Structure formats: structure tokens, C-alpha cells
Amino acid sequence: MVEISTSILSVKKEDIIKTIYNLETAHTDYFHIDVMDGKFVENNNSQLMLEYAEYIKQISNIPLDVHLMVEDVYSYVNTYFSLKPNIITFHIEAIEDEEKLKNMIKYIKENGIRVGIAIKPNTKIEKLYKILPFIHLVLVMTVEPGKGGQELIDITLEKISELKSYIDKEKLDVDIEADGGIKLSNISKVKEVGTNIIVSGTGIINEKDYKDVIEKMKR
Fold it and tell me: Domains (ranges, CATH) in the chain?
């Protein structure tokens, strides 16, 4: 059974408290916090997402799954340390230098937080192989990062399949998370290629019954 990480990217500010409560009672496994800086991606929602994450920590015990779509990874990592997320994921495209990449992974781990690396649809999966032994999760973007409500790019499923084969061959303990355009109508094909954590935003938020849709996604 997969775990569900619900993205609250599309939730309106006036609805956030009610939505957090409803998602908790619907048994989402994580709250997915999509942080955008207006540089790495076009949109900038960094202040709003920090507010949302702070709300969650005040009223819920569901863990935070923080996805940083930012250029200045170090600054944003430090901002989220105080909220003690379950995991902080940043993009491999944001830190190209291998030494700096390993140092950032080490820095996050030293602060007692799990580390994920995200990868865009057009970045080759082989770019991750050297660092897989040092991280807990790979987040494969199944859309271009930067906005919600996009359609899943089918070719990214081949990337997940390839990654899963490599992880199994090397006997690594690394989760595979997929994010972008995933909903009830296409979740089965995302699971089939080896994904064990599914990020869904509008695929859940736009439904009337969160509990029903999350249960169906997990099955």
C-alpha cells in the first residue's frame, strides 16, 4: 500500500484551517509543503507556505513533507528546521556541485531530519545514482515544477521504473515519491512502476470527500 502526501499548494488561505483538519481526519500520511521562491520556479509562495506549515504544527500531528523549489537551499532549510519536518527535499538542479550537494545532505541529516532529492522531468535519472546511498527519498517530478493542476507527463513513469530497478539492484533503502498531476484516474500506473509515496494536490483538494479519495488512492 502506498502512502499519500497531500499537497496544500492550491488551498485558499481562508480555507486552510478547515482543510488541515479534514485532511487529518481523512488520514493523509503527510502534508506536502511546496515552497517556491520565484527564482528556481516562476511563482513565489514562500511566505504563505511557511504560514501553512506553522498552522499544521500547531493543530496537527501529521508529519510535514517539505519540497523546496528554491535556488538558495541553505536559507530555506534553516527556516524549516524549527518546524521539525519529517523530511526536507530539495532539487538536484539547485546544487550542481557534487561536494556542495553532499555537504547539504549531511547538514540536514545532522539536524535530525530525513533528506530527499527532487528531480525535474527533463533531468536524467542517472544524475542521482552517486548520491542515492546518502539520502532517504527521491522525489520524481511528473510535471514541470512551479504550479499545481498540471497534467501528468507519462514519460516520467519510465524514469521511476528505471530508478526502482536501480534501487532494487543495489539493495538501497530509498523511498520513491512522485509528484505532479496524480489523481484517482491515473494513480494505478504511477504505483505500478514502483512509487511508494504519492503526492496529490488538486486530485484530493478538489474532491468533496477527502477520506474516500485518499482511501481509494491507497488501495
Answer: 3-218 (3.20.20.70)
